[in-house]
Amino acid sequence: MDQTIKYYDDNAIEFFMNTKDANMENLYKLFLKYIPEGGKILDLGCGSGRDTKYFLGKGYDVVAVDGSIEMVKLSSEYTGKKTLHMTFQEIDFEEEFDGIWACASLLHVRRDEISSILYKIYRALKPNGVLYVSFKYGDKEEYRYDGRFFNYYDEKSFSELIKKLGYFDILEILITNDVRKDRENEKWLNVIVKKKTAHI
C-alpha cells in the first residue's frame, strides 16, 4: 500500500486532472437510490474529490477520506470541505453512515487484507446501510509497472468473498466500461451490498 500511496502523492495533479470530470452519473443513481435525502455518506478513498463534490451539491452530509496527503490537499481545495488524511486501516467509525462510496479505491487492498477492511466498513455503516464498491474486472492480483497494487474481482470471486464474510447481502452487480477517454475498453465490476441487521 505504501508504494501505491506514493504513486498518488507523486502523480496527484495528473491523476486529479484525468479523473475530476469523468461522468459517473449512472453510478451515482445506482448508489443514491438507497440513501435517504440528506443522508450521511463516507467517500472512502476520495481521490480528486469529484464524487464528494457531487454528493455535497445534492445536499448529502459527506465525510471524505484519502490515504494520499497530496490528494487530500487537492480534494479539500476542490470540494471546499476538508478531506481527512486516513488509510483504510485507520478508519474507525461506528454505525455512522447511511452509505459508503468506495469508487476504484478498495481495488488497492490485497486479498489477505480485504476481509478486515470490509469489516471496518460494516461497523461504520448504520443498520441497513449500503456500500458501493468498484473493482477492475477480473480475478487476480498484480503490481503495475508504476508500483501500484491492484486487486481484480469478477461476479463469482466477489460473490464468494461476500458469502464467506456473512454480514453483507449483495443487492446489485453491474458491469460497466471505463468512462475515461481512451479507456473505454476497460471493464469494471460495480457492486451494491447492504449491511445485514444482525450484528456479527
From TrEMBL:
Identification of the protein by name: Methyltransferase type 11
A Pfam family recorded for this sequence: Methyltransf_11
Superkingdom classification of source: Bacteria
Family matches, as InterPro entries: Methyltransf_11, SAM-dependent_MTases_sf
GO molecular function, one term: S-adenosylmethionine-dependent methyltransferase activity
Lineage: Bacteria, Bacillati, Bacillota, Bacillota incertae sedis, Caldicellulosiruptorales
TM regions (residue ranges): none
Keyword Plastid: no
Keywords noted in UniProt: Methyltransferase, Transferase
Any one GO BP annotation for this protein: methylation
Domain Methyltransferase type: 42-133
